[in-house]
Structure formats: structure tokens, C-alpha cells
Design a protein that fits this description.
Structural class: alpha+beta
CATH architecture of the largest domain: 3-Layer(aba) Sandwich
Bound molecules: calcium ion
Number of strands: 10
Strand order of the largest sheet: 4-5-6-7
CATH superfamily of the largest domain: Response regulator
Length: 220
């Protein structure tokens, strides 16, 4: 989410997190564009009026770099011209402030459904199956009960199987910028996941890469 109004950003983030989304917030266009270009981002909620690069410029920059992830534009203005300009710049949908949070949720869900490449219905690595929509995880067909953060961490690792993810990158995507410097939270949650996913005789699923971070690996 790229939004310079701190209170608004905080409220939306809290609401989305309660729905199980993982939200990174950037307060200006430059930082937002950089964050939106990171792997693992599924959609962008983008305020139109931003310091520095505005929402039009951010959308245009994303599209011109070949990033087609869904962009939901927020605008304080009710002007038809802004909406047309936003959609022309490459936004997929827009919401006029003030809006009901439920409407934001509904539009976000619709955008994430639109492109199955952006949000595959089910992620599978080895015998682990994670369903983002139903919020369920199974290993070898057996249901595994995870907390919201554990689920988000596993989802992130499952989206990039075989790719070593540094603690910082995991923090950025699964927690938020505020956690920088507290990287042992990642180790703690990887520990929780291992305990829940790797039975006493089970194959290791999440491997530690010494000095770097973690990688989720399916069976060879
Ligand atoms: Ca603004």
C-alpha cells in the first residue's frame, strides 16, 4: 500500500491484516514503487496524491517495467478526469475516498481473482498444499493449523520454492518495515513452522542457509 496519510494507511493495514493479508506500507511514490517491484507482491493499493511521484507516475513506471500486478487506485477527488487518467496510466480499478472498508476488500478480492498467475488458487510444494483463499494448509493430506503470521511466512516461502530468502526480505514481506533490526522473530517463526509441519520422522522442509536465511525445498 502506497499512502502518505499515516492514519489512513494504518487503519487499512490493520483491517487487511485481520483478513490475513500481509501488507507493506510506503508513504511516498519513490519508496512505494521500489517496494512494489519486489518479488512476492500480489497487488498494490495506491493513493493518487502522493509526495514526490504521484499515483499516475507510479502506475506508469510499474507498467513500463513490465509489472502487471493489480493496481487499485485511491483518489480523494471525485473528478472523472482523474479516474480516466488513472485507468489510462494502467490502474485496474479505483476507489473514491471516503470509501467503506468492505468495498476495498471486495475490490481487492476481485482484482486478485482476475489473474490466476498473480494469485494461484493453491500452492503446492512437495506434499505441502496451501490454499490462500480458504486459508488452509495440509501436509500429506493432513490438515495443519497455523497462526496468521505462520501462514503468511509459509505462503511467502512457498511462492519462491528453492530460492534462498534472507531474514531481511522475509521481514519486509511477512512483517513490516517497523520490525527491521529484530530479525530473530523470523527464526522463532521458522521454528514454529518446522514444529507444526515436520513431524518427528518427517522430511525437513525449511532449510537454514547459514548466515543468510531460509529456503523451502520440495523433495528432490
Ligand atoms: Ca495522499
Amino acid at each position: 500500500m502506497i499512502e502518505d496519510e499515516i492514519k489512513m494507511a494504518r487503519a487499512i493495514r490493520r483491517g487487511l491484516e485481520q483478513e490475513g493479508y500481509v501488507v507493506d506500507v510506503a508513504a511516498d511514490g519513490e519508496a512505494g514503487l521500489e517496494a512494489a517491484l519486489e518479488p512476492g507482491v500480489d497487488a498494490v493499493i495506491l493513493d493518487l496524491m502522493l509526495p514526490g511521484k504521484d499515483g499516475f507516475a507510479v502506475t506508469h513506471a510499474l507498467r513500463s517495467q513490465g509489472r502487471w500486478l493489480p493496481v487499485l487506485m485511491l483518489t480523494a477527488r471525485d473528478g472523472v478526469g482523474d479516474r480516466v487518467r488513472g485507468l489510462d496510466a494502467g490502474a485496474d480499478d479505483y476507489l473514491v475516498k471516503p470509501f467503506a472498508f468492505d468495498e476495498l476488500l471486495a475490490r481487492l478480492r476481485a482484482l486478485l481473482r482476475r489473474d490466476p498467475m498473480v494469485r494461484p488458487p493453491v500452492l503446492t510444494v512437495g506434499d505441502v498444499v496451501l490454499d490462500p483463499a480458504a486459508h488452509t494448509v495440509t501436509r500429506a493430506g493432513r490438515p495443519v493449523s497455523l497462526s496468521t503470521k505462520e501462514f503468511a511466512l509459509l505462503e511467502f516461502l512457498m511462492r519462491w520454492p528453492g530460492t534462498v530468502m534472507s531474514r531481511d526480505r522475509i521481514l519486509l514481506h511477512v512483517w513490516d518495515y517497523d520490525y527491521t533490526g529484530r530479525s530473530n522473530v523470523v527464526d522463532v517463526y521458522v521454528g514454529y513452522l518446522r514444529r507444526k509441519l515436520e513431524g518427528p520422522s518427517g522430511d525437513p522442509l525449511i532449510r537454514t542457509v547459514r548466515g543468510i536465511g531460509y529456503v523451502l525445498q520440495g523433495p528432490a
